């Protein structure tokens, strides 16, 4: 017999425009059609067994209760040492580094800690989808500035540029936070040292803070070095730096990351952190602290993923897709508008639905990274996959 339940009182949504993310939709569609999922950004290969051994050892050593709210000391010290060795900036591990439940929690906690109702937050679109709802929950005002889409002679998007003029015009006395992302998701573009110098010129003399999302910091290719906000002392003094062990060590499901910021900023961050998550998985922290001691585990990541990028891009060149530059991250964006098929006229979302259902390969429309979809005929593939996965996907894509 069906139970009749009383209705809950009505209440307004805090995020009325938010529904199921495109990543969830495409992953579900891929599963339905048994398609190869090159949409959602996670590896399909295992992490290093050595890392698992370190975590297992921590569990057996009974590191299974609450760790310090800020994260265990060994891990914070290891992070501080890594940042200093790579970027030359010395964070105090006791007062300026906090372990988070992944990069996304670090992003939301940063925004909630520094954005008050009415404050303006500048984001650069296409943007990772957690930025906007985090600002909305903080009752801030979003100022979205689009990347400049550079076009080729046929009118197709071929690369993206930082929109310096619009970015400068977006900064004013109400600007509380500017969010930058390098290496960039979804386009893979990277900021250069000269770009940070230019950003410093824009914010000098203002009260604007910076959030630098650098979760793909170790996936920069072709001999280029990642330029961290920590490599620019003037900007580091007003910045929250965010990174992710999940991305670096192929353990996205562990949800462990970190935030580094000057002490006074970190004090405010920790006030929010202690109440929205309090602390992060203990044995994972011990395992990561031990694994982090060997720099080869992250310094070798660029060549590892560059080989995958090169393998995937060589195969894509045998299709009608036009490849955009992929200097970093584990994503390859392509323009499909010159494919000699009727579907080349579809919207990005419709093309991705068709590609998944009919060709058997899932991708993500870049238009999904805008609040109001911007159609540029560009979709994103993730190449953080086993070679056999990429090989099968390429065979299917080469039928187009």
Q: Could you name the key traits of this structure?
A:
single chain; 400 residues; alpha/beta; Aspartate Aminotransferase, domain 1; Aspartate Aminotransferase, domain 2; 2 domains; seven-stranded mixed beta sheet; four-stranded antiparallel beta sheet
What does this structure look like?
This protein is an alpha/beta fold and 400 residues long. It folds into 2 domains: 22-47 and 301-397, Aspartate Aminotransferase, domain 1; 49-298, Type I PLP-dependent aspartate aminotransferase-like (Major domain) (Aspartate Aminotransferase, domain 2, 3-Layer(aba) Sandwich). It has helices at 22-32, 49-60, 73-87, 102-114, 131-137, 164-170, 193-203, 233-236, 245-248, 263-276, 282-291, 296-299, 301-316, 348-359, 387-397, and strands spanning 36-37, 97-100, 120-125, 141-146, 148-151, 157-161, 175-181, 209-213, 239-244, 257-260, 322-323, 331-335, 361-362, 364-365, 378-382. Strand 7, helix 7 and strand 8 form a beta-alpha-beta unit. Helix 3 (73-87) packs parallel to helix 11. The longest helix is centred in the C-terminal third of the chain and has 16 residues, at 301-316. The mean pLDDT is 96.
Brief overview:
Helices cover 38% and strands 16% of the residues. The chain has 400 residues and is of the alpha/beta class.
List the helices and strands and how they pair.
Layout: H1 22-32, E1 36-37, H2 49-60, H3 73-87, E2 97-100, H4 102-114, E3 120-125, H5 131-137, E4 141-146, E5 148-151, E6 157-161, H6 164-170, E7 175-181, H7 193-203, E8 209-213, H8 233-236, E9 239-244, H9 245-248, E10 257-260, H10 263-276, H11 282-291, H12 296-299, H13 301-316, E11 322-323, E12 331-335, H14 348-359, E13 361-362, E14 364-365, E15 378-382, H15 387-397
Parallel strand pairs: 1-13, 3-4, 3-7, 7-8, 8-9
Antiparallel strand pairs: 2-10, 5-6, 9-10, 11-12, 12-15, 14-15
Helix pairs in contact: 1-14, 2-11, 3-11, 4-5, 4-10, 13-15
């Amino acid at each position: 017999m069906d139970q009749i339940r009383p209705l809950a009182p009505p209440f307004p949504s805090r995020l009325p425009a938010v529904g199921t993310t495109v990543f969830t939709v495409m992953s579900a569609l891929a599963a339905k059609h048994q398609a190869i999922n090159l949409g959602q950004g996670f590896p399909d290969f295992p992490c290093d067994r050595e890392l698992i051994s370190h975590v297992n050892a921590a569990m057996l050593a009974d590191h299974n209760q609450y760790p310090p709210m800020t994260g265990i000391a060994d891990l914070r010290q290891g992070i501080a040492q890594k940042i200093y060795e790579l970027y030359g900036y010395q964070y105090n591990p006791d007062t300026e580094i906090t372990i988070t439940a992944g990069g996304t929690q670090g992003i939301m906690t940063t925004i909630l800690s520094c954005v008050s109702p009415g404050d303006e937050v500048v984001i650069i679109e296409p943007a990772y989808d957690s930025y906007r709802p985090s600002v909305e929950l903080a009752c801030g005002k979003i100022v979205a500035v689009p990347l400049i889409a550079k076009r080729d002679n046929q009118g197709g998007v071929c690369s993206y540029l930082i929109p310096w003029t619009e970015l400068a015009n977006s900064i004013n006395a109400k600007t509380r936070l500017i969010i930058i992302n390098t290496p960039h998701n979804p386009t893979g573009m990277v900021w250069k040292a000269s770009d940070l110098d230019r950003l410093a010129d824009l914010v000098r003399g203002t009260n604007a803070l910076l959030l630098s999302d650098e979760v793909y910091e170790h996936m920069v290719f072709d001999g280029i070095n990642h330029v961290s906000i920590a490599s620019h002392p003037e900007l580091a003094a007003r910045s929250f730096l965010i990174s992710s062990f999940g991305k670096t060590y192929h353990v996205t499901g562990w949800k462990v990351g970190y935030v580094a910021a000057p002490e006074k900023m970190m004090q405010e961050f920790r006030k929010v952190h202690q109440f929205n998550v309090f602390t992060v998985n203990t044995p994972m922290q011990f395992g990561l602290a031990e694994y982090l001691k060997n720099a080869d585990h992250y310094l070798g990541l660029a060549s590892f993923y560059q080989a995958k990028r090169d393998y995937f891009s060589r195969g894509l060149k045998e299709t009608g897709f036009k490849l955009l530059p992929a200097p970093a991250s584990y994503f390859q964006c392509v323009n499909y508008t010159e494919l000699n098929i009727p579907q080349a006229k579809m919207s990005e979302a419709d093309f991705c639905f068709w590609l998944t259902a009919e060709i058997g390969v899932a991708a993500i429309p870049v238009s999904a990274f805008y609040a109001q979809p911007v159609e540029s005929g560009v979709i994103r593939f993730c190449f953080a996959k086993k070679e056999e996965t990429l090989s099968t996907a390429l065979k299917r894509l080469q039928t187009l």
